[in-house]
Amino acid sequence: MPKVDPVVQDFSLLKPGPSVKTDPKSPGGGTVLPGLPRNNNFDLIRLIAALQVVLWHSYEHLNIRSPFLDGLMNIIKFFPGVPVFFTVSGFLIYASYDRKKDLKIYFRNRFLRIFPGLWACLALTLISLGVFGYLNSTTLQDKQVWLWIPSQFTFFQLFTPDVFRSFGAGSPNGSLWTIPIEVMFYIFIPVFFWFALKLKMNKTWLILILMALSYGYNIYCGLYRDEQGQTAVFKMMSKNLFPFLFYFLIGTLIYQHWERIKSWYEGRGLYWLAGYALYFSVFSLWLQYFEPGYYPNFFGLVSVIILSQVVIALAYSGRDISHKLLHGNDISYGVYLYHMPVVNVFLETGFKGVNVTVVYVVLLTVALSFLSWKIVEQPSLRLKKKPAPIH
To answer: pLDDT tens digit string along 321-366?
Structure first.
C-alpha cells in the first residue's frame, strides 16, 4: 500500500459575505453558504482517514501481525486515506475559490493551513534525527542534508538524503509525498477558473475531460510500475498532480452541481456506505476483480467514485456528530504529519514486531497532534480572520 496523505481543507476558509447568513441550528451559530451549512462532519471524516493511514503504516512498517489486525486491515484498505483527503479537498477548496476569487486571500489561507504545522513537525523530526545520531558532525558536512532541510520547509518533500535512508522506515517522514501534490491542487484551482473563462467552456465538461485525461495517465503510471517497479523514473512520473487529479476533481464535480443533487447526499450517508460495502464485498472480496490502490483498474475506479459519494454523504448526515466528538478541534492534519516520525522512533528503539506498539503509535500521534493544533495550527488559522468593520 503506498504511503498516504493529507491533506487540508476546512470551512473556516469560507468567510462571511453578502450572501452568507447565520444558521442558528449550527454549533456556535456557524455561517452557511447557499446549500453548504457550516455544521458538517468533514473534520471527523478527515480524522478517520488519517487514522486509517496511521494503522496501515504501523501494520506495514512495524511488521505487526495478528488474526484480528489482519482482518481489520483487510477491511480498512477499502477506505484509503488519500482518495478521501483528495475528494474532500476538491469539494471544499473549489467551493472556497468559487465563492471569492481573491488570490491574495486564497493563497494566504492555504499557506496558513499547510506550513505552520509542517514546520513544527519538521522541528520535531530534526530533534529525533539528532537523538538517534543521524544529525552529527559528519552528516552535517553532507551537501544533501543542507539541501534536504530547505526542501522540507517548502514543497519538495520527496527528496531524502542517502545518509537518512537507514533511519526508521527509510525516510524521516515519507508520508509527506502528498504535500507537493496538495500545493499543486491549490495552484490548479485558479488556473482552472482562468482557463474555463478564457475558453468560454462549460466547467462541468472541462472537469470531465480533465478527469478522463488524469485517469488515463494514472493507468499508464500503474502499467509502468508493474513492468519497471518503483524506479526513480516512476517516482518522477507519479508523484505529481496528474495521476491523482481525478480524485480531486470528483469532489469539485459534486460541488459544481450541489444545489441540484444535494438531496442525494443529505441524511443518506448510511445508504451510500451500505452500497459501497456491498460493491467491494462482491467485486473485490468475492470476485477479486480489483484490489484497492492508487492506480485502480476500471472496477477500482468505480470503487473510488462510490467511496467519494460516501464521504460527501456522511459529511452531511447527522451533521452535529463531528462537533459533539471533536468540539472544533481539527487534529487530522497533525495526525497525518506526525505519525511516521512516531513510527520511526519505535523502529529505532526496537519495537518492530511487537503488536501492542500500534496502540502506542496511535496514542502518541494523537497527543502530538492535539498539541500541534492548540499551539501552532489553531493560532495560525486565526490569522485568516479579519476584524469586522465598525459601524
So the answer is: 999 999 999 999 999 999 999 999 999 999 998 889 999 999 999 9
Q: Is 199 helix (H, G, I), strand (E, B) or coil?
A: helix
Task: Check the CA dihedral 362-155-214-265 and report its sign.
Answer: positive
Report the alpha-carbon distance of residue 225 to residue 238 in Å, rounded. Answer: 9
The total number of structural domains in the chain stands at: 1
- Is 61 part of any domain? yes
pLDDT tens by residue, 125-154: 999 999 999 999 899 999 999 999 999 998
Residue 2 lies in a domain: no
Q: What share of residues in the chain are helix, strand, coil (percent, to 5)?
A: 70, 0, 30
- Contact residues for 30 (Cβ-Cβ < 8 A; gap 6+): 11, 22, 23, 37, 38, 39
Residue 389 included in any domain: no
* Full-model pTM: 0.88
Residues 6, 179 contacting (CB under 8 angstroms):
yes
Q: Parallel, antiparallel, or unpaired for β 36-37 and 21-22?
A: unpaired
Neighbour count for residue 26 (Cβ, 10 Å):
17
Tell me if 6 is assigned to some domain. no
Alpha-carbon Rg for the chain, nearest whole angstrom, is 21
